[in-house]
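COURSE: Structural Biology Practicum
ASSIGNMENT: Worksheet 4, Part C
STUDENT ID: 0417
INSTRUCTIONS: Below are two proteins. For each, the amino acid sequence is given first, followed by its structure token string. Answer the questions at the end about the second protein only.

PROTEIN I
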Amino acid sequence: MQPLAYFSVRMLLGWLQYVERAQRAFTTNPLVLVATGTGHCWAVVFALFTAIHIRAMRYEGYHEGYVAHLPVWVSWTESLAVAAMGVWMIAGLATFAIRIVEEEDTSLPTSGKGNFLLQLVGSKKVRDGLALAHTLSCVGLFLSIVLLCIAMACMKGIGTPCELCLCLVSLGFALPHTILAYDRLNLYMQKEGSAQEPRQAIQAAAQEAAALGPQLCMILALADSPSHAAAWQNLVYLVSSVAFVAAVAACSYSPPKLGDTALPPELGELFTCFTLDVVACVGLVISFPHMNTWHSWALFVLVATLFAALWFEDSRSMFTELLDPLLVVRSDADKMLPGKERQHVRKASWVAGLLCATVALGDIILHPAEEGLMEPPVDHAFQEMFWRQIAADRLRRVAEQAHLWEPNAMLLLRYRPETKPVPSEQELLSGVAQALGVTTDSMTTKVFSQEHRFLFFEVNEGGEPKEPAHARWAASVSKPSDGKLAGILDSTFPSRLNTTLCHNVQVLIQRAKQSTTEAGGAAEEPAMPAEFVEEVGSGPGAKEAYMVACDWWEEALHAFSNNDTARIQEGESSSKEGSDLA
């Protein structure tokens, strides 16, 4: 979506320049060239990343986890490009905000009066700092271009002519911008007046490179997606690349205009730029089907609406005022410097660029990339590993769920109401450990309630004892010995939870609640079945204490069932995105 937005902005600005060509033109001072060059450079970096990944996915061995096989500095370059673009955007927004404040507060540029904050943001140091941020971000992106070209040369497989042409255009674009940024850095680092202004030849070369360079890079990157270009097609790509570099060199040798003169581009240049912008957008949508979404169509409608708005002078005035520092009153035509050979080379570059775009777009339309090449590869190894993990988790959870039915995990203790002082949880566990002949470390409390005089616990014994813990505990409850629990155990309370009885009682309670709700009456406690009274007893609070353990067991059982369902659903969803998770 980002490259589509970039090319859309280029088309809108080109259209605005066309309709205002008789009165206004964009200024081309060194700071503007560096600042806008950063945005153009981002598009070139994007094109190089696209070419690198297309080439990586084309060769055997890259389809599964191919990113891990790319040169190590590709990921570093991506981080560098993102950071540089972030700095550029922050500096651009800050500059735009200062421009708005400047228009609203007349004291900002020169007066010593007024708000201190307004004077601070309007100071020369702040402006120089923002300009330096633009320059540094520009340097970072230009460095990214060089690193990506080296990465393309170091990758596996034989390079294609399109990749060679892409590197040639990228370096032809980056070189003048790098020199221009270097000159700007010299101005900041040296004392005022001691450094020379950036060279006029470099400004002319950078301006010419920004006109067609980003679109050509994107078109050449996408032209490689069919991966079977004929010899004549490769020749067209090579000629257009060489013509582009020759035009940049010709403008450097013979600049088209004097200094920062604001002159509109020639109609041939505007037409070529607009056509290449359109071809780049169409090629992106065809090559990357995931870009063909409602977002792209909404962007298309927005651009079409703005095109129509810019045609009318009344609505266009709002945009010209907003861009007033950049879109200024044009200079006279006599500021254009003569250069017959230079113009011949530039026109040849325009024709070659149009021919390159036509051939590339035709090849992309007639020979689309193989299915799945531009989509994230399905990582079968990851899927197998993921489902093995699911199976292992299921087995573990089945074992944990089976543990809920272990007799040693459902032991109960209730002490008598007259017990004084009231025993603590640790005192009860210590007494149980003494009665069973185990340590307290092997025991786990599930529920302890002094209100119900009740302890629900489990015993994890190692090895295979002659008699299981639940049997020993049942004997201890029925006939308490002389241990710590002697005299306080309630022998009428069961020693172990009956899960079948718990489930039946829970169903009975739920049905009673449902019947009461449907009848619209007050909720009433249903009568407990005879087997419950026989098992639990009819002592005060015995039913409530037993139901606390039943509720805990039912909740644990439901938790295991819900987690299993959620885990399976997550696995089905994740398997479709296995390559992304890998």
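PROTEIN II
(use this one for the questions)
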Amino acid sequence: ATSSSSSSDPGAGGGERGAREGQDYAHLYVFTAEKGGMAGCDKELQRKVIYELSQGSKHFEHARQQDVKVDRRIEQMRAALRAAPPQQRAALGRQAEQLKKTAEAQRDLSRWCCVVDMDMFYAAVEIRDQPSLREQPVAVGGLGMISTANYVARRFGVRSAMPGFIALELCRRQGVELHFVRPDFTKYTAEAQKIRDVIAEYGQFEAHSLDEAYVDITDRVRSQAAKVAASGGGGGGGESGEEAEVDGEELRAAEKLVEEMRARIKEKTNGLTASAGIAPNFVLAKMAADERKPDGQFAVPRRREPLLAWLQPKALRKLGGVGKVTEKMLQALGAETIGDIIRLQADVLLALPGQRSEWLLSRALGVAPCTLDFHDEGDGTVRRKSISNERTFKDKGDSEELLALLRELCTELAAEMAKEGLSGKTVTVKLKHATFEVVTRARSTRRWVATAEEIWEVAQDIFLRELPCQLRLLGVRVSNFRNAAGPGTDDPQQAKLARFFASGASMSRAAAAEEEAAPSPSPTSSSCSAAAPSSVPRRRRER
């Protein structure tokens, strides 16, 4: 479908005011954040149009109210910083140094983690099937919301998560016509399965959406590098020379394997391209996947100093888990880059006490888990926190419709849990009201819940207490799984021994995953083994 807009430009005075106010409120919207391919877009025009078309809406008013709350937190934070005596600052500095030492002790540069990210996936599928759209600005979605936009559209400030009517006006003011394509998720799911069939041959992986996958290629890399070494390739004098040569061989093997994987994806999908990042952990690999978009790959340096030289100049929002609120609070401290978190470490500890500041310090050093979040079929231990299913829709207040939707969500969630034999004791219902206020209600049961009826029984009882309500999102989550990995299982060897002595059985496999302290930026995930990749999931699995 092709659409155009007939709204007129505001007058010069109003335009200048809109530009100023657009700048003031740009941080309220996730779709003002830069995405790959948007480097050359007119940011001032983008902010101005977003402000003009959003002011007065429920979303704008809710976002502004939330922003006022953040501003109050920032004032309290600044007051605490001003009042902090030198002794407290010195103590915080020592605490920060100790936290950094702890993080450094956890640094693992031995693994080869890869994130594969399909380029403008939904749009790429549509353009492949309709070549006439190749040079046109294309958005998959409609006036309500855009799922993705091609790189031509991104040059005009259009991106995913942006309301379609705003994208339409952005293009109109720049003299181009935006082409909307209705999404076809059946087709995208089929293409995603082809991609995962290829990825599964390179290592165990988990998929964080239809267009992205995290894959551990360590075994394949080491095997490939060992073959080269056995054939007489490489060498080096002295122990340090041998170590450097091994690292070099593994790096070359990793780059070659990922290049091969991307080429096979392109061939199997008739031309769809993938970008990839290679790093010692998945947080860095995710960032690296954006480095050479589209249709490129980048390997993060394997040595500490070059790694930090690459990481720390990057903007705060490049760090997965840093959203608009954390960014604004860090900017209030004077931070603009990831390296500034280390520079302002004492202030960060005072302003954001607890696990959040510890998480920020470790990530600013490039330290993160290098394991996948999966259900280990070898020992039955569940290392995932929860699994959930949610739906967004236009404002809806009919209680019968909402209850029918909740039941459908419970049925779909139960089907996903059945695939991996999951059962839990905590059910959570998530509601986003028409005012954009988000509420979650949870209840734990004495018995394990797994079937649709069991989940529905608890979720229905929770939801009925919230009626009447006008909603725009409804979701249900199950957590507190049977056989969940508990505290103290982060060390794989300790986990192995504990299971051995507890069961008296031989140890078949060991895998332990350190849970990240910040929520995953990616909404959907599943876990698949190289031997038996699972079907493409639709449910959200929170890490």
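ANSWER KEY EXCERPT:
Q1: Residues 1-13, 374-380, 487-543 have pLDDT under 50 and may be disordered.
Q2: The chain is about 45% helix and 15% strand.
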